[in-house]
TrEMBL record:
Comp. bias (Basic and acidic residues): 57-71
Organism ancestry: Bacteria, Bacillati, Bacillota, Bacilli, Lactobacillales
Superkingdom to which the source organism belongs: Bacteria
Region (Disordered): 1-71
Annotated Low complexity bias: 10-20, 28-43
Organism of this sequence: Furfurilactobacillus rossiae DSM 15814
Protein name: Uncharacterized protein
């Protein structure tokens, strides 16, 4: 190799090295530029996000300020007009209440009576600007409805009274005097309706639901009140009070197509009063035999099978028999009379020996009421 060749190789190597170095430098510069662009882009994005958030906050602040300014811009006259209108609305609400109450207390139409009563049961008299310090409750309007329905049909026996020192109604029976007195106790929840309740004992004589059109009598409560608590009152007076309740129930059936369960108040000769226990303990009927003999009444075997009957006054027949089968007993009590007018309740109140026998064996003989209503 000549000296000139060596110089050419050295020169080529140097040029190659410089080209490579230049390429690396360009690559580093390109990467650096890209990195700076990415950083710049992220910075710009963050700045934009912060700017949008700040803008939104500013708009909210401006909106709140705008509302405040809008309220602040009301003149005193405008404020008083709003205030005055709110009072007018409250007073108009009170006037609407009086219209319903006028209708409830004055109408002779049974449909209007029910319509006004149902409006008053849920009516809210007070508003934010007008309140009425003297108010009756839905319980009172139930009593007023009951009293007015009897009045429309020219039926007496119920006396509506008001407390002297506050707004509260109660009713008493003309035949029984000032005690016991009764009120309606409302049922909460989805069931609704109300119980006609003795205020002293808390006994629920019947349940009434105007929306579901039903009335149900409670045999246990009637026995506790009329056969036990009011034992010293004459049977005629107690039956006069009970007849008022029966009349009310029949009005509901006739005027509003109610369904009714009269229970031991039922007078139909075909009625069977089913005892609490379908299978009576041995000796239950024998105890009635002894009680009837002491009272000079003759107990006879029931014509239809296992049981007994007693002939009472005016062709009234009291019976107790197993109307079931050998494998499924079903003891029932019956009362039959020529006019279909005598209920088991009437028998219990008029014949001491039957009442005493019934009460002594009450855990087994108790007549069943609607279990869905009277636990």
């Amino acid at each position: 190799m000549t000296s000139d060749d060596k110089r050419d190789l050295t020169s080529a190597s140097a040029e190659s090295t410089e080209a490579s170095t230049a390429k690396d430098v360009h690559s580093d510069q390109t990467a650096s530029t890209a990195t700076k662009q990415q950083q710049s882009s992220r910075t710009d994005s963050a700045v934009a996000t912060d700017s949008e958030a700040a803008s939104a906050t500013k708009k909210e602040a401006e909106s709140g300020t705008s509302k405040e300014k809008k309220l602040d811009t009301l003149t005193p006259s405008q404020r008083f007009r709003i205030y005055n209108n709110n009072i007018k609305d409250g007073l108009q609400n009170g006037i609407q209440f009086t219209k319903y109450l006028d209708q409830l207390t004055e109408t002779q139409d049974t449909d209007e009576l029910l319509d006004s009563a149902t409006h008053l049961f849920d009516f809210k008299m007070d508003t934010a600007f007008v309140t009425f310090p003297h108010q009756y409750t839905a319980s009172d309007y139930y009593l007023l409805f009951m009293s007015r329905l009897l009045e429309i049909h020219e039926e007496k026996g119920l006396i509506l009274t008001s407390a002297a020192d506050h707004e509260e109604l109660s009713v008493t029976f003309d035949a029984l005097g000032t005690q016991p007195d009764f009120k309606f106790v409302l049922v909460g929840g989805r069931n609704g309706g109300a119980f006609f309740t003795d205020k002293a004992s808390g006994l629920h004589l019947f349940y009434m639901n105007l929306e579901r059109q039903q009335i149900r009598f409670n045999s246990k409560a009637f026995t506790d009140l009329f056969a036990v608590a009011l034992a010293d009152q004459s049977a005629d007076k107690k039956m006069a009070a009970i007849d008022t309740l029966i009349t009310f129930a029949k009005d509901l059936q006739r005027d509003y197509h109610f369904t009714a369960d009269y229970n031991l108040l039922e007078t139909d000769n075909n009625a069977e009063y089913q005892t609490k226990h379908p299978a009576l303990p041995a000796g239950t009927v024998d105890k009635l035999f002894v009680a009837s003999a002491d009272s000079h009444y003759m107990l006879q075997n029931a014509p239809a099978g296992n049981g007994a009957i007693i002939d009472l006054e005016d062709d009234l027949v009291f019976g107790i028999a197993d109307a079931g089968t050998q494998t499924a007993p079903k003891w029932v009590i019956t009362t039959t009379d020529p006019k279909n007018q005598i209920s088991l309740m009437a028998v219990l109140l008029n014949y001491d020996f039957i009442r005493q026998w019934y009460l002594a064996n009450r855990d087994d003989l108790e007549i069943q009421s609607d279990p869905l209503i009277f636990a």
